[in-house]
Amino acid sequence: MKSKNTVIKILAELCRLLIGVVFIFSGFVKAVDPVGGAIKIGDYLTSFGLDKLQPFTVLLSFNLSAIEFALGVCMLLGVYRRYVSFLVLVFMAFMTPLTLYLALFDPVSDCGCFGDALVITNWETFYKNIVLSAAAVTVFIYNQRLFQCFTYRAYWFVALYAYLFGVGFAYYNYNHLPVIDFRPYKVGANIPQLMEIPDGAPEDEYKYSFVYEKDGVKKEFSLEDYPANDSSWTFVESKTELIRKGYETPVAGFNIYNGEGEDVTDEIIRNPGPVLLLISPKLEDADDERMDEINSVYDYALEHNIPFYCVTGSSPEAIDTWSDNTGAEYPYRMADEVLLKTIIRSNPGLVLLKDGTILGKWHYNDIPAEEDVKAVMDGCLDGQRIKSKEDVALATNLLTFTVPLLLVWVYDLLRFRRRRKEKK
């Protein structure tokens, strides 16, 4: 009996750790890139015919990441074990059938459960949720056997603080660039290299078949045995099936065009000198509060003969409206809206390239002031200045979360020991 209880205890604790780590990781990477989460939620809403909810995608992204993060923290620390295990079970009871539907009918390419940090297929997501569902059932049944790091009096603080931190962290990344860039277009990335296929890389493998008809009967043949020289068979159709996916380049479909529709990609990513790109997927939705700072950067570029382009997915009419409203005089280039949203999570955002390498990226809230333009550009010629800022921002946010929890844990532990002594 004692051995059985030990096994159950170990199993429940392993399930607790699994759920806690997965939920924290999932919530964290979503909060790192709330704009990407909002885009993925928008894809879901479109696929299910719920376009009326599109204005709430950012709000939904914030809350989804914060709820997952808070549930993971509470599960990992043994806070509100009964309620949290029940909520996790309800969460998995909703997500598992949903991911089965996604796997069967593929309305979106991937579920986005781990953002761009870890992209897995819809079937892999479903299998992952089967494991998590089993773990959720286990912790729900044996929730009172789970380890707890805090006493009951501190539960409210841990749960509330975890949720508020999740919202605040997502809000920070929404108003600045993500503290960790999981996409291919991170600082230091060389775009031409990311578009190349390495020598010896596996290629896509296909199975080809042909359908022929004879005497009213249709038959499918392979490439090796189809009746090419038999006139008694009549060709009906050919079929192509992908057997094995080959190597996919991290960057595909990177194309930029001028107003005449000519491809000018090489002029931008093969330029040996600095190139500044003001990226705006849709100028109609772009924030124009920082136009003075952006125009100052453009003036600096003109003064130092640095190419400066506004790259957008908007129509010529939208471009004219933007120029009229903001007084913008810089030249425009066109690119796919999805590509631009992937390059930078800001509308507009500023990107500094040199010979195809991304040296710097700025959210519109972080555009350098006119007097700092030269200093900032000189500082990021090796990419280290931008990367160090990202590292500092990440470390600051992590300390903001862990230090208060640690202090509360110490206080809670000392209070618990003091009360035990008083009872004795």
Automatic annotation (TrEMBL):
Q: Name one Pfam family in it.
A: MauE
Q: How does it sit in the membrane?
A: Multi-pass membrane protein
* Entry keyword set: Membrane, Transmembrane, Transmembrane helix
Where is coiled-coil annotated? none
Kindly list the residue ranges recorded as spanning the membrane: 55-79, 86-105, 125-142, 154-174, 392-414
* Gene Ontology CC terms, in alphabetical order: membrane
List each copy of the Methylamine utilisation protein MauE domain by range. Answer: 9-140
UniProt subcellular location: Membrane
Protein name from the UniProt record: DoxX family protein
Q: Which organism is it from?
A: Parabacteroides acidifaciens
